[in-house]
Amino acid sequence: MAAADLDIQYVAHLARLDLTPDEEARFSAQLGRILDYIAQLRELSVDGIEPTAHAVPLVNVTRPDEVRPSMPTRAALRNAPAQANDLFLVPKIVE
Amino acid sequence: MEYEVVIGLETHVQLRTRSKMWCGCANEFGAPPNANVCPVCLGLPGVLPVANEEALRLTVLTGFLLHCAVPELAKFDRKNYFYPDMPKNYQITQYDRPSTANGWVEFETGGGRARVRIARAHLEEDVGKNFHYDRYSGVDFNRAGVPLLEIVTEPDLRSAEMVYDYLNALKDILRQGGISDCDMEKGMVRCDVNVSIRPAGASELGRKVEIKNMNSFSGVRKALEYEYARQVEVLCGGGQLAQETRRWDDAAEITESMRTKEQAHDYRYFPEPDLMPFAPTDAWLGEVQARVIELPLARKERLMRQYGLPAADAETLAGDAALGAFFEGIAPRAKQPRILANWVINNLRARLAETSTSIQAVKFPPAAMLELLELVDTGRISGRIAQEVFAEMFATGDAPEHIVARKGLVQVSDAAALEPLCDAAIAAHPRTVADYRAGKTAALNFLKGQVMKLSHGKANPNLVGEMLQRKLQ
Q1: CA distance B199 to B192
Q2: Structural domain tally of chain B?
Q3: Mutual orientation of helices B383-396 and B400-407 as an angle, nearest 10°?
Q4: Is residue B394 part of a domain?
Q5: Which residue segment(s) compose the domain that B456 sits in?
Q6: Residue A21 within any structural domain of the chain
Q7: Is residue B136 within 8 angstroms of chain A, CB to CB?
Q8: Which of B51, B259, B271 comes nearest A62 by C-beta?
Q9: Among A26, B179, B342, B470, whose CB has the most other CB atoms within 10 angstroms?
Q10: Full-model pTM
């Protein structure tokens, strides 16, 4: 995708970022350059190559179904901007 | 114009595992808020999820039970969105390579049978639970990361009733298969319903309405009945239906449009780089295959065929795996399996329910049921006394033979002993005797009952009947 195809406002909305017009211009240019760089991959022919799910050729990494200690509730909530009744408080969710 | 309804279902089911999907926190309902959390399920930076192998097994087992194919390779993807109950800002799910796909569920509905195709059943993680206050919402992440199976049907369902029957059949399969406890009260099963209408016989689908996050089967049925009527009314009134998401209001019994947060969903799925794909080996699949159960519908039919049970009894036994196993453990040795089934359902099951006992805790050995029936069969005790013996067996675990001997309950078939009892009953109820002689044959049953009472239930009822008849001629 070239920079021209990039809808910076849409991407900012998806990321819940509120950008100033100045930032929109700056990030648009920066993201455009990243996309151009990645676009070099298009020069490779990948016909007939199965898309890979992971760069590391490893499958079936699992853990047994065993309960291990959780962290103390107090520690879990330590970084919460607001808390009450052992819950993380967030701005009211409107469905 | 006649309209038909077309319905597809996405059913989310919490898997029965001890621990969560990506971490060792307990998968447990009802713990204090944020007690079962750790850096992995809180989405803290730098953590690495590792897949719970049992959850992968239960997913593939579901595939086998729903006649699905199990692909050679499954992988996980990130579904990106922002919502307070999802701390990572993405949900790990399976997008284009689900663990199992392309199956079907067969079930009874509308007096016949139906088959609904299953598009896929994929594994993902549950999210946290929100509590709403006046100015804030609170989030409990105990549920975040609990393994969640999403079972998606093709749009094959054609009525609210059929959906209800499908959901119950699915629940029976998943519970008996040990996939999920499916406890609705604990929110272990939630449905999203896709519903549209079209002129009867048309092949094109109408505009689809999604009803989100329903947590009871009766709610789903009511919502669909409401939604069908609403959509027909809009179209008949010359209106247009919108493709939208609606919410079921359980109290008002209506659906209402949800304010859409985004014009179109753009989840930007991409492969989860923290998890390796899963490629089940034949040996692994074999282990899961060994856990496949006989499906409830197949079992019901076999019980009818093999033991000559009526449909209702067979369904009861097939719907309760433990009770069914108890019955089948002794049924091959029963002279009359139908009568045994009756006792298991009407006496044993009732007692278990009354006393909140599990079938594993029953005090008498299963074969004692056969001994009890044998006592009735040979006329040693009457059916009424058998009830009493059963109650005693259930309470003490004592053998029926002992109970009969200990309590002196042997049926009295001795004419010399019964004669005075019949005479007493006749003498005490002259009006009933007159009724009988006047042609009311049912009056005899009353007299018979009196004799049974006088004998403390021990008289042979057939013999008493014959004797009374003879005496009153």
Answers
A1: 24
A2: 2
A3: 110
A4: no
A5: 415-472
A6: yes
A7: yes
A8: B51
A9: B179
A10: 0.86
